Amino acid sequence: MLPTLLRTCLTTCRKVRLHKIESCSYSTYSNIREYFYHIDVHGQLFLEDTKPKNFTTCFKDKRFLDFFFQRLRVNDTGRNEQYPYVSPCGKELNYILSEDAPIVFSDLDGEQLVWAGDKRFLFHPEKILVSSTSGRIYHPSPKTLNNKTKHAEMALLKSSLVLTKFAEHLDLENRSFFWNGNTYPIQISEHL
């Protein structure tokens, strides 16, 4: 009988794996299959070779996305170092390159930020941070990746989330955020 993790991986990833084999180059190293992914600033996951990268070509299955992102970690394999993250799945290593932070919050449900497919993380309004260079807004990540990249502990708030749920509460001129009757100072970072 297969170990639970491998069985889950095989059933969750089967459809995706078959698609990858038919449509994307991959390599084999010591009986480990390697695949290459891209995460855009909207948190959409694509096979690296996918063209064009848009909503119709990204992965949408919430169960798969939860599975994939739950296993996200720093790439310490010594291989494909241009991909700072990896999501292991049985005998597969899924290497990941992100346009910005590898974790992007896509929605707010009550007081819970939504990421991956349907994973939840408590929103902390006092901890939002704005990049002085890009103007993008960040929140502490649900996963501490502890690597040397600038996004080790921060997740990006998707622009549509900021526009629909947070814009009217932001006062960037006074560097404050008004939420549920409280005003919080906004931190500005030159490092993101």
Give a quick summary of the entry.
The chain has 192 residues and is of the alpha+beta class. It has three helices and 16 strands. It is 19% helix and 34% strand.
Major sheet: order of its strands?
Answer: 9-8-7-12-11-10-16
Using DSSP, what is the number of strands? 16
Proportion in β-strands: 25-35%
Spans with pLDDT under 50 lasting ≥5 residues? 1-25
| Secondary structural class | alpha+beta
Mean pLDDT across every amino acid position:
84
Shape: elongated
How far apart are the first and last residues' alpha carbons, in Å?
Answer: 46 Å
Succession of helices and strands: HEEEHEEEEEEEEEHEEEE
Major beta-sheet overview: 7 strands, mixed
Give the number of helices: 3
Count of the domains: 1
Helical content (DSSP H or I, runs of 4+): 10-25%
Radius of gyration: 18 Å
Describe the protein in words.
This protein is α+β, with helices and mostly antiparallel strands and 192 residues long. It has one domain. It has three helices and 16 strands. It has a seven-stranded mixed sheet. Strands 1, 2, 3, 4, 5 and 6 form a six-stranded mixed sheet that branches. Strand 10 and strand 11 (137-140) form a beta hairpin.
